[in-house]
Design brief:
With 867 residues, the chain is α/β, with parallel strands linked by helices. The protein is built from 36 helices and 16 strands. Helix 18 crosses helix 20.
Length: 867
């Protein structure tokens, strides 16, 4: 198409105007013919019209700027760099969805203030200069005239500039700095919506001088449009904006308007773009412009039901095609269904229907479908209506009575807690909208709490959560928009105090409560790892953002596992397996990032560096708040390897343990490395083996029974596993080994005194540590004869293997395994509810403790039976 237009500076203005209009006529004729013949898809029609707009805009700008440069010189910034106008296409032009008789919505910006370097018109001796603002304002006015003004050949495009900052009262062109300042100081919700599809049509490409104005424009646009948090407050704003449109439709009697009327094109765009505004800042895949690209992505993320996305896409295609046929009638920008019978017959025929009745029935069905889906997204919850309103709004006596009626166990204390919340400075300082939502949510929270086993505790925990998020309008909006989320959070925090603390620390997780299908789905760890890799790639170059992505991804997965755990869908063992695998993935991802950013690495290929897990992670028994016991080993002959890998290990540990705005990823314990806290942070495989064979204590060999390679270089990991097997299969004298294990057990017991009268599930004799030490002794004592014992399969499985090998009576192995499983279950339940110690009444576990004592006596006191 561009070849059909004259080059700037070669032709006069009249000829340029004529060339632009004749091009438009040729393109329109061909497009109409292909469309009505059924040869062109909607995508082809829209992209053709968008191409026409982009080409004519660029040609008009080139002509206008060439004329101005000849008079006033080249506009330059203070550094002397040449500048050109950036024409931003808004709306359907920005999304490359232009229709056949559309206005084009434009905004004019330029890189920086400055002035032209002067020209020498008509041989004048004195150079003439303009400010860059005046230069680009003149260029913009000329561009508009070239496209918009009617001539005997018609027009090219009607140009609408009302979406620029301050609308018709604003400057015609403004600098990038001025645009950013406007967004920060004056940008409104409807402008965020308007700028979703904004796209630079013209402007400088990177000039090799370190400046990229188009990238700068995007860096200004994106944070304005897309918030870093989940912006549910935008739904209310979009609902309000649409209500204004609906009122205007009713006032102007536009019910037959297929763009603005009920079930029209605008409602489909509202659905897509509202959900983009809510989540596009956190999920960059949603920050795309075309509506038909957004809808399937929303369905993939379960933000729209799949059938809704399919219906809306089909409706959009039908309504846009109908829109084009309405505009073919008179080349007018109309969206109203015709009243004239002849026109109706023409439209029906162009749409492939035998008559207007059939066409009209299809239009009505499509619009009813759109309206139904629109209502499902934008329906507004009732703000009141729960009988517990009085518990929040009434005085202490009224609130106490209301809570008592609804089954609260200590209604007076709970009513006093509600009264204290209403009297607090934090509540008083809330903005009006947030306070309105808070007032609506508390009665609903109380009603949800009433349905839990301990309503008083649930409501108290819920109030703590709401007070923590009260200043973040988006979180209150999320709960206000989604009643089911409030019900689910009440169930979770009612079931476990740790769950309440976790979601209060990380309120972003409230979003996880919106969809049961996601919340309770079996984890797909390979898919999670791939998605995490993609998210980290989008944050490349932003270390803090990458660290937050790791933390937020970890928290989301932990929260889903917590929900499944509290719902009874996971055994303690299965939960620990998932948490351990999640930690492995995050260690792998973090290691890759740290290596990629490490200054002065000694090799271009991935590091020959491995992370080894000990303790709970090593045994795949990780809990929600377990530390990571890890060490670092490498297998690399390069002389620089030790220094480089020490820096890598330090950086890796910093990434894991540093607190960011998203919290901490893990606590780590590195003291199990050779020589403990005084040893080197990283060991070569050879030095690790020498230490284990010559200098390690027995307790370090005990720890090695639960060690495993968990992340990093697989070859180095295999080398570690080979060393581990050789060390564990060494022949040992049983009497000294038993004495050392018993001495270490006594030392640990003395370090955890218990005078509570309760049984400590972990530390008391007959508890979990007795089982773990007995299993470790069996491995160290007998692995030289039975290599099966070297496998890191967990204590219950190793007890069963020891029984199969004749090292334990079968019934004792089963009873001890059952005891270990029950102890872990009880310990897990206690920790979920904030218990400082894992202690229970002795008679509750007496049978299990007796079995463990028998195991201890059998293994440690009669060890010679295994000779």
């Amino acid at each position: 198409m561009r070849a059909a237009l004259p080059a700037p500076g070669v032709t006069g203005e009249l000829a340029m105007r004529r060339a632009l209009r004749l091009l438009r006529q040729r393109v329109m004729l061909r497009t109409m013919a292909r469309d009505l013949a059924g040869s062109a898809t909607l995508a082809e029609v829209c992209s053709t019209m968008s191409d026409l707009a982009e080409i004519t805009i660029a040609a008009a700008q080139d002509w206008a700027e060439a004329e101005l440069r000849a008079k006033f010189g080249v506009p330059r910034d203070p550094a002397g760099r040449a500048q050109t106008l950036i024409v931003v296409g808004m709306g359907k032009l920005g999304g490359r969805e232009l229709n056949v008789s559309s206005d084009i919505d434009l905004v004019f910006v330029y890189p920086e203030e400055g002035e032209t370097d002067g020209g020498d018109p008509a041989g004048a001796e004195e150079l003439r200069r303009l400010s860059t603002h005046e230069f680009f304002a003149r260029a913009g006015r000329k561009l508009i005239s070239l496209l918009n003004d009617p001539t005997e050949d018609g027009f090219v495009f009607r140009v609408d500039m009302r979406l620029r900052p301050d609308g018709e009262a604003g400057a015609l062109a403004l600098s990038l700095d001025a645009l950013e300042n406007y967004f920060v100081a004056h940008g409104r919700e409807w402008e965020r919506y308007a700028w979703i599809k904004a796209r630079a049509i013209t402007g400088d490409a990177p000039a090799g001088d370190g400046r990229d104005p188009l990238a700068e424009l995007e860096a200004i646009r994106k944070p304005f449009v897309y918030r870093k948090y989940l912006d549910y407050a935008t739904l209310a704003a979009m609902r309000s904006l649409h209500a204004q449109v609906r009122r205007e439709v009713a006032r102007r009697e536009l019910a037959d308007h297929i763009k603005l009327g009920p079930g029209g094109i605008r409602e489909i765009e509202f659905i897509a773009q509202a959900l983009q505004l809510v989540r596009g800042g956190r999920d960059t895949a949603l920050a795309v412009r075309p509506t038909l690209e957004v809808l399937p992505r929303l369905a993939e993320r379960r933000l729209l039901p799949e059938n809704a996305a399919t219906d809306l896409a089909a409706a959009y295609d039908f309504l846009r095609r109908l829109e084009h046929r309405l505009q073919y009638l008179d080349d007018a920008q109309t969206h109203r269904l015709p009243g004239d019978e002849a026109d109706r017959a023409l439209i029906a025929g162009m749409c492939g229907f035998p008559d207007w009745a059939a066409c009209s029935a299809k239009i009505d069905a499509v619009r009813e479908c759109v309206t139904a889906h629109f209502s499902a997204v934008f329906v507004e919850n009732e703000e009141s209506g729960t009988p517990l309103d009085i518990a929040w709004q009434g005085n202490l006596e009224e609130a106490t009575l209301a809570l008592a009626v609804h089954g609260f166990r200590d209604p007076q204390a709970t009513a006093a807690r509600l009264q204290a919340t209403r009297a607090s400075q934090r509540y008083a300082s809330l903005p009006t909208d947030s306070r309105k939502r808070f007032n609506a949510l508390v009665p609903r929270l109380a009603a949800a709490a009433a349905g839990t086993p301990n309503p008083d505790a649930t409501l108290a925990r819920g109030l703590d959560l709401m007070e923590a998020i009260a200043r973040r309008a988006a979180y209150l909006a999320l709960l206000a928009e989604h009643r089911e989320a409030l019900d689910r959070v009440a169930r979770m925090i009612g079931a476990a105090s740790w769950a309440a603390e976790f979601v209060t620390r990380h309120p972003l997780l409230l979003d996880e409560l919106l969809d049961d299908r996601v919340l309770y789905a079996e984890p797909d760890w390979p898919a999670f790892s791939r998605e995490l890799t993609a998210q980290l790639a989008t944050a490349d170059g932003d270390t803090e953002r990458q660290m937050n992505v790791l933390r937020e991804s970890h928290q989301s997965q932990v929260f889903r596992l917590l929900a499944q755990d509290l719902a009874g869908l996971l055994s303690v063992e299965k939960l620990a397996d998932h948490l351990s695998l999640l930690a492995d993935i995050l260690l792998e991802q973090t290691l890759a990032l740290c290596w990629a950013q490490l200054p002065r690495p000694h090799r271009d290929t991935p590091p020959r560096f491995a992370i080894v897990a000990y303790g709970k992670l090593g045994g795949k028994e990780l809990g929600y708040v377990s530390d990571l016991d890890i060490i670092f080993v490498y297998q690399d002959e390069d002389p620089a390897a030790a220094e480089v890998y020490a820096r890598l290990a330090q950086r890796l540990n910093n990434w894991l343990t540093s607190r960011t705005s998203a919290g901490q990823l893990f606590d780590t314990d590195l003291r199990l490395r050779p020589s403990g806290a005084s040893g080197l942070l990283v060991s070569s495989i050879e030095s690790f083996e020498r230490y284990q064979e010559s200098d390690a204590w027995v307790w370090e060999h005990q720890a090695l029974t639960r060690a495993r390679f968990c992340a990093g270089d697989a070859e180095s990991g295999r080398a570690f596993e080979a060393v581990r097997e050789r060390v564990l299969r060494s022949t040992r004298d049983l009497a000294p080994l038993a004495a050392d294990v018993v001495a270490m057990r006594q030392k640990m017991h003395a370090a955890h005194p218990n005078d509570s009268g309760l049984f400590d599930l972990k530390h008391d004799h007959g508890g979990m540590i007795d089982i773990e030490f007995a299993v470790q002794f069996l491995v160290l004592a007998h692995a030289h004869r039975f290599p099966e014992l070297v496998a890191n399969l967990g204590n219950i499985a190793l007890l069963r293997i020891a029984s199969d090998l004749g090292l334990l009576p079968g019934d004792l192995a089963v009873r001890s395994g059952n005891a270990y499983r029950e102890f872990r279950r009880l310990q897990h339940a206690l920790r979920l509810n904030g218990a400082q110690f894992a202690r229970v009444k002795k008679d509750a576990v007496e049978v299990h403790a007796e079995a463990v004592c028998l195991l201890w006596d059998r293994v440690l006191l009669t060890h010679s039976a295994g000779d």
